[in-house]
Amino acid sequence: MSKNPYIFILMNLNLTITVRFKFRQYIILSVIVFFNAPVIAQNNNIPIYHLKKATGSIIIDGDMSEPDWQGAEVASGFFQNYPYDTAFALSRTEVRATYDDKNIYFSAVCYDSLPGDNIIRSLKRDYSIEDNDGFAIYIDPYNDKSNGYVFAVNAFAVQMEGLLESGSQEPVSAIWDNKWFSEVKRIGERWAVEIAIPFKTIKFKEGITTWRVNFARNDLKRNERSTWVPVPRNFKPSNLGYTGTLAWDTAPGKSGTNVSIIPYAIGDLNKKYNGSSGGKRDANAGFDAKVAVTSSLNLDVTVNPDFSQVEVDQQQVNLTRFNLFYPEKRQFFIENSDLFSNFGFSQIRPFFSRKIGLYQGQTVPIIAGARLSGKTGKNLRVGAMDIQTAQENSLNLNAQNYSVLAFQHLVMGRSNIAAIIVNRQANKYNRAEFSTNDFNRVAGIDFNLLSDNNRWQGKIFYHTSFTPERMNNNYATAGWLMYSTKNLFWMWNHEYVGKNYIADAGFVPRNITTHHETGMVMRQTYARLEPMISYKFYTSSGIINYHGPAFYSDDYFDSTLAVTDYFFMPHYIVNFRNTSDFQVHFHNSFTELFYDTDISFSGKKSIPAGNYYYRNLMMKYQSDRRKVFSYFLQALGGSHYNGNIFTLKFDVNYRYQPWMNFSLGYSRDQVRMPYPYENFSIMLITQKTEVTFSPAIYFTLFTQYNTQINNMNLNARFQWRFRPMSDFYIVYSGNYSSSDLSVKDHAVVAKLIWWMTM
Predict the structure, then answer these.
(1) CATH architecture of the region 48-248
(2) HEC readout, 620-677
(3) Would you call the peptide bond into 83 cis, given omega within 30 degrees of 0 as the criterion?
(4) Which residues are bridge partners to 719 per DSSP?
(5) Residues 378-398: pLDDT tens digits?
(6) Kind and range of the H or E element at 340?
(7) Please, which pLDDT band fits residue 605 given cuts at 50, 70 and 90?
(8) Which of 236, 444, 533, 710 is most buried, by CB atoms within 10 Å?
(9) Shortest CA distance to 140 belongs to which of 168, 159, 100?
(10) H or E segment at 69?
(11) Each residue of 520-568: pLDDT tens digit?
């Protein structure tokens, strides 16, 4: 056992949080967390792959007959990550690598002795790694176990690439797209893949002769996940804390000019059925540019961008008083996005790029923007962004300038200190005049903790906002700590957000509420406590993988430390070896309504302000995801404010491998209320059909029927990827009334994107 190096955070830390609140007039809650945090050191026997430069050319055809492949070192002897992590993999995998002046090459031979077809969801790019038989490479070019890339190919030659962020504790960001090349060849009881990744595609520091790398194989027929460097089964193979060394015989250098110009052209015909006559035709064009300032620092420029989405958002039923979060999907914001977006917490974000170009749900034209981001040294990442939007008279909105400065410096291994400044300011962009009384700024500093073996993770931050009114109580602060082993998981989180902490370019839904009937805006200070603990009992049973209890609590307090909401959820999870799982939850809730509220948020009679206590029982089951037909069921019943609720959700999925996926989702919330309030039900039905005619041609039909917002949305999209990263789309989108299916609006859009690399 060795002491954790994060001495000033973890060693002999006494965290005392005393919370007073009027609950039966006398309870005082005092929570004391004390620990002296020993951490088991990671195995120092890190495997090394020695990378030799190719002497000839490599042809990407899946054949691997070139002499350089025959002379390359072989990485084999993979370890299981699932269902066990203490044995060698049963599915044999052999990996080789080499490079030349332009690309780094990888090849893998995946032996497959079990009868039957490989499990493939579809031929669509950016597939889910866990749901397909495939091979993946996880690369950390900075050798810092913090950020990197994943490149994966499934057994039918479909590509997936993504960004690894925060040591890959976060889910892989598959929205990022870039150019690389691969091919698969199937031969008897094995399939082989060749991959070429241009140096222009990834960012790295010149002169570094060691990178971090891991290789992973997914064999769903055998229900086995394996890696070259062993990864404990409580972590995903993407975890950069468990990687080997990629040792170059010569450090890779800059591969010539690296500039990409990405022009687009779009035309659409649309009509709104609100009494206007005729349709409206629009056309637009613009471009993005990516310029590699250095091999590790990138400049993104956009001029007259089209930030409309050819893929619509997945709708959600909202029975809370607060806004829901929808993720960013726009390419301009994706690369190095964690450098800007990972400040604060999910509900206390000083910067949320989706706020740019949107106002009250309406699109605002963006004139231009620029973003510089990347590494300037082994330990320092920097980011600067500036975006200008146009004046929108129909929304009574002035032109706005958004600017962000951020940096992140590694300390003590994988942890980092980060700082951010965000500015939103009204201006007259044609005269470069900035308003002195219409602005909002946020400045903050974060410390992010991540131990070498991933057992400890945490965050402490302090952010403050600035407005022309110079109000006090204008800051937010929080602390979070998590400990995770194969069996035990626990976390502690506490937050404080002042009522005048305002982040116009961020996402902070909790400290401001708007009365849906009167439009009255209320700002409030709140504090939050959020502990959780769970334990997994792993079994050697051929049926159950693990099972165990978990306890989660989420409590909110006002400025006097009186409870305004609490949620306590003990639950039990059974995870089966065949990838299915069953869960049972008990919910014990309390809510204080500050004003009369329509709890359906759909125009019903409001219930009075006051205190409400309610309890629910929920059960859910996910079937075997590997089957061509799979399903998810969830049922919840119990009390809801002063009434009763029954919620039923189910999703069914069918795939005609590998050409088609069909999914149908149904959600219904049935609420019965006492007189004189109205019963109500809210229904959300989603249907999605994906047809992949080839790895380059896709068709998607997506329908969403939502009675809460009285809307049915239909989105039909045809996509042709006619060359790498270049696409042609034809999209139909229409909105209809869910009550009588009358047309609200519809549009047909044609869009061309052409990626040109110089």
Answers:
(1) Sandwich (2.60)
(2) EEECCCCCCEEEEEEEEEEEECCEEEEEEEEEEEEEECCCEEEEEEEEEEEEECCCCC
(3) yes
(4) 698, 729
(5) 889 999 999 999 888 888 888
(6) helix 338-341
(7) confident
(8) 444
(9) 168
(10) helix 67-70
(11) 667 889 999 999 999 999 998 889 999 999 999 999 999 888 999 999 9
Question: 3-class SS at 394?
Answer: helix
Q: How many Å apart are CA 401 and CA 312, to the nearest integer?
A: 26
HSE value, Cβ hemisphere, 13 Å, CA-based, for 196: 15
Contacts of residue 467, defined as CB under 8 A and 6 or more positions apart, other chains included, come to 439, 440, 441, 474, 500, 502
Per-residue pLDDT of 460-475, as tens digits, reads 999 999 999 988 999 9
Instruction: Report how far residue 337's alpha carbon sits from residue 459's, in angstroms, rounded to the nearest whole number.
Output: 18
Q: How far apart are CA 640 and CA 200, in angstroms?
A: 55
User: Tell me, what's the pLDDT at 593?
Assistant: 87
Q: Backbone phi, then psi, for 354, in 5-degree steps? A: -65, -20
Contact 692, 659 (CB under 8 A): yes
Rounded to whole angstroms, the Cα distance separating 552 from 155 reads 40
Q: Could you count the other beta carbons within 10 Å of the beta carbon of residue 711?
A: 16
pLDDT at 8 over 50: no
Q: Is the dihedral of CA 341, 346, 350, 351 positive or negative?
A: positive
Burial class (CB in 10 A: 0-12, 13-18, 19+), 197: buried
Residue 148, strand partner residues: 164
Distance from chain centroid for Cα 226: 24
**Selection from 173, 522, 508 nearest residue 325 by Cα:** 508
- Give residue 442's identity as a one-letter amino acid code: V
Residue keyed to tokens 């804390």: 241
Q: What is the DSSP letter of 43?
A: P
DSSP-derived letter for residue 70 is H
Question: 297: which residues sit within 8 A by CB, 6+ positions away?
Answer: 203, 372, 373, 374, 375, 376, 382
Q: What pLDDT does 313 receive?
A: 56
Q: Is 50 helix (H, G, I), strand (E, B) or coil?
A: strand
Q: 683 has which bridge partners?
A: 668
* Structure confidence at residue 21 (pLDDT): 34
Domain boundaries, the chain: 2-36, 48-248
Spatial contact of 444 and 464, defined as CB atoms under 8 Å apart: yes
Which residues share a beta bridge with 438? none
- Any alpha helices (H) in 499-539, and if so which ranges? none
**DSSP symbols for 455-491:** SEEEEEEEEEEE-TT--SS-EEEEEEEEEE-SSEEEE
pTM above 0.85, yes or no: no
Residue with tokens 């009186």: 562
What's the CA gap between 304 and 673, in Å, rounded?
Answer: 51
Say yes or no to pLDDT of 142 above 90.
no
* Residues found in the chain: 758
Q: 619 vs 115, 567, 572, CA distance in Å?
A: 36, 17, 10
CA gap 545, 538 in Å, rounded: 6
Return the structure tokens found at 315.
């709708």
Phi, psi of 395 (to 5 degrees): -105, 5
416 by Cβ neighbours in 10 Å (0-12 / 13-18 / 19+) ranks as buried
User: Is 316 within 8 Å of 717 (Cβ atoms)?
Assistant: no
Could you give the CA distance from residue 540 to residue 543 in angstroms, rounded to a whole number? 9
Asked whether the beta carbons of 704 and 712 are under 8 A apart, the reply is yes
Query: Measured between alpha carbons, how far is 65 from 100 in angstroms, rounded to an integer?
Result: 17
For residue 704, what is the DSSP state? E
